[in-house]
Amino acid sequence: MKLSLLAALIGSAAAFTPAKVPVTTTSLNAEGELLEVKQKVPCFGATPFGGEPVFIGENYWDKLTLDYGSEATGTFLRAAELKHGRSAMLGVTGFAFHKLGMTLNNISPHEYLSVTQNVKFADLAAMSPVEAVKHIPVEGFAQIFAAITLVEIYELTHKDGKLAFDETVAPGLQPGGLTGDLGWNPLNVRVTDRRRLSELQNGRAAMFAISAWVAAETIPGSFPLPLPW
């Protein structure tokens, strides 16, 4: 969960800021309103005794691409944020399905998750989502990681949806090679800036949501946060 929050914060720093252009404007909504991306913004602030807000320091949103990396670094960070966001969205969906009773014991023709380990879907449905994950057999986790590995290998070795036979270095290992775009679009959906932005924002929201849900499930009283008023 910490990695999810870290990816949300770091990825946000490079998601929309080009590496060498300090100020960029782009139209991202139907009304044509321009979104100005600033090179630096106030870091944090406070409003003492109801007065005007006082900001301290500056936050360089593209620090990782300007000083510590390059444009390819920003591409990699954006891809990392996309992957964390997609994983979080799947996690939120699974967590919600479990809480709503839409579990595999109600929809699967099979009774067991693992016959050899005597793990039934009904037993997992009676647990909390976090406890259910803990009872997945090792073989189950091996299958999950094997599926993830296949996806990662595909992205490393393919370019524009095709296996890069003529490349001496795998496309995914080249600067800016990992973009999070697997080239899989069976419905031929037109990918626009608005849809890219929506995916990023939904992924960020999902990372916070799954972090909060897991914290609330495992640490009683952790959510909602106590407020002084």
Can you summarize the main beta sheet? 2 strands, antiparallel
Instruction: Estimate the mean pLDDT confidence.
Output: 77
Cα distance, first to last residue? 28 Å
Gyration radius, rounded: 22 Å
Number of contiguous helices: 8
- What is the 3D form? flat
Going by helix content, strand content and strand pairing, the class is: alpha+beta
Give the low-confidence spans.
1-37
The total strand number stands at 8
Describe this structure in words.
By secondary structure, this protein is an alpha+beta fold. 47% of the residues lie in helices and 14% in strands. The chain has 8 helices and 8 strands, in the order αββββαααββαααββα. It has helices at 2-14, 63-66, 71-99, 104-107, 121-125, 129-134, 138-157, 193-218; strands at residues 24-27, 34-37, 40-46, 54-60, 112-114, 119-120, 158-159, 162-163. Strands 1-2 form a two-stranded antiparallel ribbon. The longest helix has 29 residues, at 71-99. The chain starts with a helix and ends in an 11-residue tail after the last helix. 14% of the residues are buried.
Would you summarize the structure shown here?
This protein has 229 residues and is of the alpha+beta class. 47% of the residues lie in helices and 14% in strands.
List the helices and strands and how they pair.
Blueprint: H1 2-14, E1 24-27, E2 34-37, E3 40-46, E4 54-60, H2 63-66, H3 71-99, H4 104-107, E5 112-114, E6 119-120, H5 121-125, H6 129-134, H7 138-157, E7 158-159, E8 162-163, H8 193-218
Antiparallel strand pairs: 1-2, 3-4, 5-6, 7-8
